[in-house]
Amino acid sequence: MTPSASGSNQSSTHPLETINSLIIKAMSAISRQSLIFIIVNDTYNLTKYDRGILWDMQGEKHQMLGVSGQTTLNAYSEMHNKLSTLIASLNDKGAAQVLGPDKFSGKEEIWEDLQAHHQSAVLWLPIYFDDELVLGLWLERWTGGYDDPLTADFLGIINKYLLPGYGAAWSKHQSKITFTPKMNYKGKMKLAGLASALFVLFVVRIPLRVVAPCEVIPDNPVLVTAPLEGVIDKIIVEPGEKVEEGTPLFDYDKRVPLQNLKVAQNEIEIIQADINRTSAVGLYDKPSLAELGLLQVKLRKAQLNFDFASYQAGLLTVSSPVDGFVSMDDPAQWRGKPVLVGEKIMTIVDPSKTLIRMWVPENDNLNLNPDMPVKIILNIEPQTSYAARFLYIATETSISEKHVASFIAEAQWKDPPSDEIKPGLKGTAILYGNKVSLFYYLFRKPFAMFRSVTGL
Question: According to the 3-state scheme, what is the secondary structure of 322-388?
Fold first, then answer.
């Protein structure tokens, strides 16, 4: 049975007002079945028809969802089979149109057979959502055609406003991805994409990476330390200056050491004079000869003091032990500064011989693969990367310049770098560990943080 009471009100109600009411009612449907009932029955309020049928257009086979005035469907009836065959052969399922025998591909006899029962005029309304055909509304008139001014005036309005509203309401009751055989093309593509992503995550294996700050350091630098305790008078060379073996580097304050040398020399002269006097007196005074042995011991001690003072005086000017370049801080801070024996003053380096020192963060101390080259990217040349050979990593942590607990590691250049790669340059080192799945590579740190926070 088809609703008819509201048909008399069509002339007094604006179509957009009716469409708005229909869309609100459809969007408010609490279930999929109630929405089907609204579409096949309440659309009569906009345009009269004797029977409305709603079809599911997703999937390969089109399924009848509801018929106006009926609560049950017989999917095996002859009428159902004929209608589904007609819709499958419809030339343009995506266009709103009045149907006729010329609209079907090779199934005109079925159309003629249906017309023998009812001289029907049929209006086909496709319902889209997200540019995908999801439903089709089949409206039959048994008492007149769809060529009247009503359809000509309102078909564009229905297609523009009502049908998209029905499509949006229908989408509210559909799952995003369905695992039924009736899955649409987009659903299948989403499922295939999900399966491909899982395959890539768990099958593809890549090496773990550790990113650590690094610095170019001299290879086997020669330390120049304080040879004796004293006060620095002046630094003769400048930082970065090229020196040769034997080039004076810095001077001590000479006043105290030279004074000590003079005192030691005077002490020797005094003791020697005492020995000479005692030897002369001993010719006449035998007991005086007993002091001669003690004076000889004092003379030996004084000579040792003199030799030590002479040695220290010879160290007042420190020279370079090798050829190279001077590496040190501000020379002015050393002038007048007292130093202890062995205190570092400067280093002599060869700029062409360098290593890379890295600070591997404590949380990234993985099982590094020594066979994988280390990639070095310097801050002055971020567009260029250099290869280095991993040498070692410390077993104890230390605090880096950025105040991060780190393990110190070193690497050696695989190919000699250019002259522009000098000690002191900083950058980033990328070290590689064992191969793991892409899933572990991406979620290792988030999972570690989750466990550290939750304790699970």
Answer: CCEEEECCCHHHHCCCEECCCCEEEEEECCCCEEEEEEEEHHHCCCECCCCCEEEEECCCCCCCEEE
